[in-house]
Amino acid sequence: MSVDVQPSHVDQIKQINIGLVYRLIDQYGPISRIALSKKAQLAPASITKITRELIEAHLVKEVEFPELGFRGRPAIGLKLDSKGWQFLCVRIDKGSVVFGLRDLSNHLIVEDELLFPVSENQHFLDYLIELVDNFLFRYQSLLERLTAVSVTTNAIIDPVNGIIHHSPYYDIQNLSLCSFLYQRVGVPIFLQHGITAWTIAESLYGAGKGSQNIIQVVIDDNVGVGIMTAGKILHAGNQSVVEIGHTQVDPDGERCYCGNTGCLETVVGIKNILLKAQKSARQHPDSLISTTTSLTVEFFCQAANQGDLLATEIIRDVGERIGHIMAIMVNIFNPDKILIGSPLNEAKHILYPVIQQKITQLSLPGYSEKVDIAATAFANSGTLPAASLIKQSLYSGQLLLEIMQG
Ligand SMILES: [Zn+2]
Description:
InterPro entries: ATPase_NBD (IPR043129), ROK (IPR000600), WH-like_DNA-bd_sf (IPR036388), WH_DNA-bd_sf (IPR036390). The chain is an alpha/beta fold. The protein is built from 14 helices and 15 strands.
């Protein structure tokens, strides 16, 4: 570091270094200061200073290693100290909200799913803060130091400014969610698109761990994609998301809520697949699908797994359509891994080979050969994606500095 560095750059370097040290202690702890210095490529004096600050803030603690160190004394290592540090995760779904209280090691302390029947902007905010207050009051005996709130939702959002522009589920526009919650709760507030946050969670502790280039496809009621390229989540810092669900695949198809017709989501969204299966079952009385009046996706996958021709045919059609779009994305992003997050993973031995075949057929052989298709480690529920935003901010040093400055 040269002496004429701007103070803001010094702060930035401090933030990056403290985040790096915290991440290494999280990943390798208990770890000695010497090993930490090597892995972080920072001078021992810097490590001593940073770890002292983290220890004083009760974010890191010293523990004795089981093995013996220098001159037979027990070696001293560092590990994270998560006790008492908590954050609140909020997942806003269609008509419901999930609250999860977690500690900094991501351990889930308590989780509640509540109905969220709201109409417009002010009603949305008022009802949400009422639910937050009630949740914190209900579990006040479990509550310690609340450090942040993290919100995820599948909507058009601006994560940097904390705004929900539009939601497919609620009649809200340009809602300044983060500044409102910050005024009321008084801790840093994070907001991210549900699929983007899910991809971050998979890359940190799930099926994408260790990969630098990931495409995650979600096939659920919503159809979407999250992309990580060279270790960075694409568009995590701005309001655009990579959009595949609203790509027209059937010009004569159904009208979609986005205003177009025949979007991918109207064809391969789970709700639409089930409707299609039920409709087709009337012409196929021999299909297992026709034996039920309330078709679930679990039953649908089981039928396919038992060799039901109709269910198999519909899953193959989903695979071809998804594979077609994936092939183009493989050529653009050259991923190591394609993760599939879907209830259709129950029938993945039918779905994945069709996607694989399409990719092989349509994209550059050098790229398609190395792609590995795998199921996501986590389901499309719960508050782990929201929790991963907190972890990400700790690793970047941003939230650490805010916590340490109290
Ligand atoms: Zn659409």
